[in-house]
Amino acid sequence: MHIHWIANTIVPPPISLSGGDRIMVECIRRWSQDHKVTVYGNEGAKQLCDWFELKGIEHVTWPADHLKKYGRLFWWLMQMLKGNRGVEKIKFSPDEKHLIMATSEFHPSCIPAMRLKKRFPDAPLVVGLYFFAPKWFSSQPGPGLMFTAYRPFQQAIYKRCLREAEMILTTVPQDRDTMIADGRSPESVYAVMGGVDLTIPQSVPEPKEKTFDAVFISRLHPQKGPMELMDVWKILMAKKPDARLAMIGSGPLDAQCRAKAEKLGIAQNVEFFGFRDGVEKYKIIKSARVVVYPAVFEVGGMASAEALACGLPGVSFDLPPLRVYYPRGWLKAPPGDFPGMADCIHRLLTDEKLYAETSKEALAAGLEWDWNARARAMWDAIMKSIKAGPC
Q1: Where does 2-195+371-388 sit in CATH, by number?
Q2: CB of 21 within 8 A of CB of 45?
């Protein structure tokens, strides 16, 4: 099989790493052992693959990053136009079977993928749609105005995905149920969930002493709640003045989080590490006792599973998707309840029996996230959908 992976909106590490990009990387790492893979997209697509040292794959770059200076909307438009022109030059060998992958439903990736599908209708199309933008004027906390404003554009491309893709990849079973209700057959929608490369945490030894009371692992983005975590940590320090927090991740709220820590007087207790990955990241994770994930609007969030695989119990708000992602090894506070979240962290830090029981559950749950098994199951689901045809 020749996999044509269109990833035309990539912002690579160390600037950022989305869940969809992580899924792409881990699948290519494994699928390329048995299949030919060509990655198409902006400069960030190759930079992403190079960062993770993906070997044995080919790249076709559609340069567009020099247009970022004119703003995101213009950049996206030009990426889409360049992608549309680029796929017109792609030739499919008649001696190979072909699969078209769009790393997300974002227009610069999905529209060229659909255009390529029209040129080669016998090649199955797989689209990743990992995040439904919130409804306008919703009372729920959201991931920012940009994502809310994106909703009507997403809904338009979503309807096309429902009609044209052999398979849609989503994040949680709830979104899968939504797509089935919208007319997809059950075998044509797959909830990826995510995974963990278990070889890495297993290779990192446990430290003699824990340096941090908790660790946050995610993008510094409104959706993920890093600003809210500063408030939570301030409340926790009233009970435990020496409580220390490690922040792993980068993103648009980096400067604001640091400024808020200073304003709240907790900067000495919060250490920002920026983007980290691999062994370096797991050394920090294993130096903490608890993983905290204060997301305010979420569809999953696989990064915290890396901490579960190290035996760290978790604390989050009780969001419905996180009940599916993390049913064991966690304490959960009502959404928006900062004192409640601080209390959950404090209980784990002070109640040895509770910590031991929750840590045991966390480790067992984390070991179920093995990327080898997850990527294999994902491939099997795609092959099943191809045989079944479009919905």
Answers
A1: 3.40.50.2000
A2: no
